[in-house]
Design brief:
Blueprint (H helix, E strand, L loop, with lengths): L1 H17 L11 H29 L25 H75 L1
């Protein structure tokens, strides 16, 4: 009896070792991480295949599977057709509105040009008056310098 039990144990050990359980790598090695990634990919692929199979089984089949709305093959009578006169009137109204907008833009641009030109004239006038003031200041400075020199000469002569 003992021999039978030990044989069973040996057979079980051989089966476990044969399945690769005894040959697993150490947990901290790259091989263990590789086996883990492999197992996760197998699980993901299995789930994906299962979900795809479930979708295929629950998807309707036949003519109700795909419907385009509105139906391109179905012809319906239009209640009221657009008349050429209405289209032409709308076209003319839009053309008039476009022409008015163009005129407004041109007038706005003209006004802006006038304003810019006015500002440019004022800037040039201010520049010219600034130059004139600078000339006058330099002349006053020269006169003050002359007066100071004359006062110094008179002060030297007095001593």
């Amino acid at each position: 009896m003992k021999r039978g039990r030990t044989n069973e144990r040996n057979m079980l050990t051989n089966v476990v070792n044969g399945a690769g359980v005894g040959a697993l790598p150490e947990p901290g090695t790259y091989a263990a991480v590789g086996w883990l990634c492999f197992a996760l990919m197998c699980i993901i692929i299995g789930l994906r295949q299962g979900i795809g199979f479930w979708r295929d089984m629950t998807r309707p089949s036949g003519p109700e599977q795909r419907t385009l709305l509105p139906s391109p093959l179905e012809i319906q009578q239009v209640k009221e057709m657009a008349r050429e006169q209405d289209c032409m009137a709308r076209h003319e109204a839009l053309q008039e509105e476009l022409n008015e907008l163009k005129k407004d833009i041109k007038s706005d641009v003209g006004e802006l040009h006038e304003k810019v030109n006015g500002v440019a004239r004022e800037v040039s006038e201010l520049t010219a008056s600034g130059r004139l003031l600078n000339q006058q200041l330099s002349q006053i400075s020269l006169k003050l310098d002359r007066m100071n020199e004359e006062d110094r000469k008179e002060a030297r002569n007095r001593k």
